[in-house]
What we know:
By secondary structure, the protein is α/β, with parallel strands linked by helices. 43% of the residues lie in helices and 18% in strands. The protein starts with a helix and ends in an 18-residue tail after the last helix.
Amino acid sequence: MNPDFLRIFAPMNDTITILGIESSCDDTSAAVLRDNVLLSNVIASQAVHIKYGGVIPELASRAHQQNIIPVVDTALKEAGISVDEVDAIAFTRGPGLVGSLLVGVSFAKGLSIAQNIPMVEVNHLQGHILSHLIDLPDRELPHPRFPFLCLLVSGGHTQIVRVDSPTEMEILGTTIDDAAGEAFDKCAKVMGLPYPGGPVIDRLAHEGDPKAFHFARPHVDGLNYSFSGLKTSFLYTLRDKVKEDADFIEKNKADLCASLQATIIDILLKQLIRASKETGIRDIAIAGGVSANSGLREAIVAQGKKRGWKTFLPELKFTTDNAAMIAMAGYHRYRQGVFAELDIAPVARLEELL
Ligand code: KG4
Ligand code: ZN
């Protein structure tokens, strides 16, 4: 089939309604966006992974397959629109788990053909960043001005991104090993905390002393990050202390969480401050699952006050994976007239998208 038919029929009317689909990891999500106003955002999280202490790709794909139709149906109903009012479908192409992504991509293709509307592919990470452009029906949210810097911190990625426009972004620094979210999750696992560990550590850290323990900080070039040394240092501290006292973790859980979280935040902020100094950019945003962390949010605001930054914290519902951000990114690609072909396939790694 000639995918050009999609371009011919793509209406460039004034108001654009986008159906966003997100299925890159373990959340099945669909959202309806009218221009930049979010009409609905439905997320089905997959509890099946909790007992395994991490996402099992095979189980994730199956759960997406079960969830996708009801989730889309609910998103349309909550938005109060019929499928005929959708102008285009935006879907996450990657990075992520291929088996999970396949469900969203295939769904988008089917609906595109059935409705004779175009599809737009979205880079999941750009989606996280562009969640800062979303408004709600009853209230406008604060939006950073271009160019802005975004600290993107999720379970799979940690990057400092220079955002020049909704479609032009440059990665200034990235992790050379683990992501910040991985550091939270892996250290939580060592302490016997449930998956995902980030929110649990966040909660326990409130009751602990952030200076109680000292863990290794990395020395990395430029604006890059590294978290594997911290993870090892955390592991060795626990191993040594548990030899002396078998109940050490239980007795010191809050202090361990507070100290670990403070170290991760210090590492994240050091490079972000450097990036702001080097670029002269003072509109600073954070995005991704770890941007829900209360300590990180407070620290960014405090640094902002000290350094004259305008800081932008995403609404908590836009921090973890959601289709609202995918619809927002898709909207801008749609406006540019960049549509996906019908033979498009998902990609696991970010490098394959560039
Ligand atoms: O963006 P996301 O939902 O999925 C990926 O694209 O990776 O991020 C998930 C990550 C997990 O590592 C989770 O532990 C972390 O975000 N996370 C948090 C918090 N909430 C979620 N980390 C620290 N503090 C939190 N409050
Ligand atoms: Zn994500």
